[in-house]
Amino acid sequence: xxxxxxxxxxxxxxxxxxxxxxxxxxxxxxxxxxxxxxxxxxxxxxxxxxxxxxxxxxxxxxxxxxxxxxxxxxxxxxxxxxxxxxxxxxxxxxxxxxxxxxxxxxxxxxxxxxxxxxxxxxxxxxxxxxxxxxxxxxxxxxxxxxxxxxxxxxxxxxxxxxxxxxxxxxxxxxxxxxxxxxxxxxxxx
Length: 189
Hints:
Blueprint: H1 7-10, H2 12-34, H3 37-43, H4 47-76, H5 84-117, H6 122-159, H7 162-175, H8 180-187
């Protein structure tokens, strides 16, 4: 990537892959902390563990999968993805959705861990955790919506001749001042 970081903004499969790499590094750091006995005692049997599991499976590997699917579809069908804008929506919906989902579970886990250490009965925690579970549900809805948007984009890629649409998107980006090279790289991603 040295000298080519602009591709992060124009190449969707690469963006998914680099985002997955960041999440995977966070999984490893978080897992190392969980191996520390004092930290594990604080987070064991809490939503923190659930957040950690989702960081690996949803945060890292789902991002790799979604990026690979977008890359493979354009190669298998020999044409660009139907809509770059829908690809952007897909990426940002899952990124914001997963980030909110992860942090709501992590915060809920810290609340639970602190309460458990103070001897608070679990039944008394339900009211404290309710806002974090509502946030988890809302952000989870964004994750599901991102999958639906990606499926629609892929379905339209199969059904339509996307070359003309890609050319129009290329011309719009070129006119907006982003430059033809950046727009061209984006249309082939």
